[in-house]
From TrEMBL:
Domain called VOC: residue spans: 2-135
Gene Ontology terms for molecular function: dioxygenase activity; lyase activity
Domain of life where this protein originates: Bacteria
Record's keyword terms, sorted: Dioxygenase, Lyase, Oxidoreductase
Keyword Manganese on entry: no
Gene3D superfamilies in the cross-refs: 2,3-Dihydroxybiphenyl 1,2-Dioxygenase, domain 1
Identification of the protein by name: Catechol 2,3-dioxygenase-like lactoylglutathione lyase family enzyme
Lineage of origin: Bacteria, Bacillati, Actinomycetota, Actinomycetes, Glycomycetales
The UniProt record lists the keyword Lyase: yes
UniProt xrefs under InterPro entries: Glyas_Bleomycin-R_OHBP_Dase (IPR029068), Glyas_Fos-R_dOase_dom (IPR004360), VOC_core (IPR037523)
SUPFAM superfamilies hit by this protein: Glyoxalase/Bleomycin resistance protein/Dihydroxybiphenyl dioxygenase
Amino acid sequence: MRILITNVLVDDQAKAHDFYTGKLGFVVKNDVPAGGARWLTVTSPEDTDGVELLLEPNGNPGIQINGEPAARVYQRTLHEAGIPYTLFFVDDVDAEYARLRGLGVEFQGEPQDVPGGRQAVLDDTCGNLIGLMEVTGDA
């Protein structure tokens, strides 16, 4: 068993496309119309046949909480609690923090030491906090 695709909920696929490719440097793997949205996946340029990240719209009305799409409620709850939706691993979190700040990416603060490494948390402009993690030591 292996992971082929994972997702991150986004409030705007066009904005997510621009952020994840233009700022983070991912490359588009699939961009196919899918009803009123797109099947939009990106991958690491270092492993284009590796795991795909689906930029999934958060507005699916199928399951609702108090009249609002459950995915949107979940995403907002994580963001308000300061919890990253997911983590991306980087070789040097301080260098990546500096590079992305230079591109105008907003962070929750400077990189911090955490168990197993160093982490910085950015705002993806699409409703999520994303952790960048550098693994150090025996993690």
